[in-house]
Amino acid sequence: MQYDMIVRHARVFDSFRKCFVSKDVAIQNGVFAHIADHIDAVAAKELDASDTWMIPGLVDIHMHIESSMSIPSRFSDCVMQYGVTSVVADPHEMANVFGMEGILTYLSNEETSLDIFYGIPSSVPSTNEHLETTGGCIDAQDVAQLLRYPRVVCLGEVMNFHDVCYEPNSISAQIIKTCKKERFDLPLEGHCPKISGEQLDAFLAAGISADHTQQSKASVLEKVSKGMFLEIQRKSMTPEVMQTLIDHELYEYFAFVSDDVMADALCQGHLNRLVQLAIQMGMKPEWAIYCSTFTSARRMHLEDRGAIVPGRIADFILLSDLQQFTIQSVYKRGIHVQDLPKAKEMKFPAHFYHSLHCEKANAQDFTIAAQGEQALCNIMEIEAHSTFTKHIQEWVDVRQGNLHWQQNYTLACVMERYGKRGTKAFGFVKGAFHSRGAIATSWAHDHHNILILGTHEEDMALAQQTLLEMQGGYVVVRNGTVTARVYLEIGGIVSGAEISVLGAQLAQAKAEIEELGYVHDNVIMSISTLSLPVSPQLKLTDRGLIMTKEQRLIPLVEEWR
Amino acid sequence: MQYDMIVRHARVFDSFRKCFVSKDVAIQNGVFAHIADHIDAVAAKELDASDTWMIPGLVDIHMHIESSMSIPSRFSDCVMQYGVTSVVADPHEMANVFGMEGILTYLSNEETSLDIFYGIPSSVPSTNEHLETTGGCIDAQDVAQLLRYPRVVCLGEVMNFHDVCYEPNSISAQIIKTCKKERFDLPLEGHCPKISGEQLDAFLAAGISADHTQQSKASVLEKVSKGMFLEIQRKSMTPEVMQTLIDHELYEYFAFVSDDVMADALCQGHLNRLVQLAIQMGMKPEWAIYCSTFTSARRMHLEDRGAIVPGRIADFILLSDLQQFTIQSVYKRGIHVQDLPKAKEMKFPAHFYHSLHCEKANAQDFTIAAQGEQALCNIMEIEAHSTFTKHIQEWVDVRQGNLHWQQNYTLACVMERYGKRGTKAFGFVKGAFHSRGAIATSWAHDHHNILILGTHEEDMALAQQTLLEMQGGYVVVRNGTVTARVYLEIGGIVSGAEISVLGAQLAQAKAEIEELGYVHDNVIMSISTLSLPVSPQLKLTDRGLIMTKEQRLIPLVEEWR
After folding, report:
1. B309 CA to chain A: closest CA distance, Å?
2. ipTM of the prediction
3. Rounded to the nearest 5°, which phi and psi values hold at B167?
4. What predicted TM-score, i.e. pTM, was given to this entire model?
């Protein structure tokens, strides 16, 4: 028998018995073909791997490529060095900007070395047209069309708990119904933080069977007991949650996932860092690997990968240190990732590069006319460790007929950018900037209208103007000068640049934003979710300030005096 | 909240933590809707289950309804009392007799209470037209058509190891290719007894990922380590195999399956008996239940069932004794099975009832002309504990120009019954009958031609004539009198009668066959596999005697003297 490649003497991970066994592994046509103590055959390529641990390629089943502000081809070229060889991506942001056209552009691009499967974005828009203006929306008919693509392997995170459970005619409920009808075995993914008891049961009873939001010990035990598959992302990896997973041996029922990794973080690693962290936190390497390869693949019915056994795709990692999870090399379908061709440059329709349809602003556009002497305002207070805001009310002075927000607040403004309504709304933010400057961005969840934050009207206008010239991205202005630019020229949300270039731009922008005084664990995420109308407590869209739990608009000024 | 039904105070099986917890369980629209310590709500029906253990309905993922010689509607009415609420059936026999028409007839019948999913028969015929004549055959195009049915959930047991691994243009290889292309996540089921090492790897590398044949300790460990899902049927449940499954905690990687249960055995139980036996053999009830519900459903991607959690179908069993696995009652989609309507009578095309196209035989048809004084014959010797035969050669006397087989043997004759070729072949059987009589049957694997066995030509002719009048079944003749009849009037292989009626007929036939001196653990299976050209060692079809390993015909008479 002649094989393409034989990896000899590696300590090979047996996913089924959760141990490493010294074996020879033969590969043929990109698939593991034969595994034995010693393979008495020749191969075009022989690899002595006696100092290594050989494990399956990592499978990331809940993530958004757009979170890296990058495109599939660039993402593919970057991520495989970290051992990530398959992902299930939910192109939620592209769908908000371009609707079906955005999703189909991704689905039609099959030329990445990384295997990219897709979840269908299920909540586009995140609320409805009365609360936010988006470029596209996805309804049940669109879902039926997308279900015909073999690379579509799940319904992406369903968020709208109320509609799913109690509004059978809602878009969310109709989408679920369509999935069950068209592909009854399709995994339906959920997003249900802080829901438990009868409410959780109603969500599950609707057919949703996974959750990737932040967990606690109690939520882990309840959700697993109720059959919910858990996708554990970084923020869920608390000592308490990790210990619960370990103590109760819940390894069959969860997988590690990356969810959102920004371009700058992506220069350091990806899902491999979570596996590393899990081991550091006391999980046996065998189990941490199992839950980022085998259970992941099984959850998505990708049973052609996720283990080193005959018949599965020959995606694998050679580790030089198991306990440290140090990656020596990565192979995709039996080919060293450094020998893989770079992904072809992705082509997008011309209008994807000209998608910010909005007038240039001037300083006067950021004044807010007022009456009387003071106004009781609804204000967003930033929380430094979460993407939630606190809703507070404070009296703001009126000076020369305008609200004098400059005194204590940063002004937030969202301008509709799809050329649909031209709507614009203001909000005040407490705990943002402390010195003169502004940022403008089209990376504003989920609708991706233009969000401008600033302490000075001229700087806000400059930031917005610069952003329009760039047709998308992040702009930081300090003391009247543009000090950072992140170019997101495709749909205003993603970049065609290499990850390293993009990562450097992003790092620069973050540093400049922090110079303005913004204090947060993740400044970009904090800012870009100020506009997300499903994230507690008070948020701002182009339609106005929204009490997100109640899903209703409230005015900026509650009362004059 | 108003529910359809609440089961109160049951010890409910938590599939995920493998324990029983006292809970209230609410059901709505046939689905588990809410589970809690106490449900403070009303329901149309309340059930106090405080003395019981509540477990999911059993899921049987490898079985053939035709093995019960019954039809789906009758099978459904019978089997749910044993807690079996979902099956994946491989209609292999119907396919051999009627080809696609047989399978589609089953697929179009959706009116059973039992949820019947289907595997596509992958080896029809079991060999090829040179070695056996069948009514139908299934090729890759047929498979492509069948894959469009949502109730088709797997490719049924692929048997032909050689073709799969080494003949890319063979029908088996083409069928697998079609499956991968059309539904890449479809489970491909295998049949690979006694294959290991590089051969097993080649079988797995072709994409097959399960095996249901008889296992040993070594085969269990090798196959599981290589990612093969094991379907454990009765004959695999040896102390050695059970202990291996238990010691190595392989619970995620196997399921109990019934495979073949005949009508008379079906009057006693079904998959429930294997669960019972597993517990008796030392497996913890929690694990035995897990491996006949949860892992079973998961293997087939039937994740809408197999556990008592919100969102899954409300199929459940109440046990009055856990250790004995004593079933008190069974519910299908929340309805007590005794309250379910009986399945509608299944309609088959008229020609399904007239499918034995063959001339009536007379005694002279069973004489074999000879020359010389003796003939060295190839003979099938029956093994009392398996369906294998031993190939022996013995000298048979010639008397009055005919072989005098009556001396020491039972004569076997297979007559083609599809009106295609009119072929007929003889073989001698050692260890069959010891007194005067005969049997005739159209239940002759896999081709289901007419198999006649006898010690007396007149009785053989009578048996064959009677069988033709019945248009299928089993006929036993003792001393010139018909003493038992099993009516299998549909395709000559299955009966429209109730299981109890059919079971009684079958029990009678078995007793009569044993009266003729046939000694075997399973006389019906032993006889009906005498004609199976893929089961070792020497078998007989309408084309002649076949050395099954070599897949070649050999003559009855090797040498004259």
Report:
1. 5
2. 0.92
3. -125, 85
4. 0.94
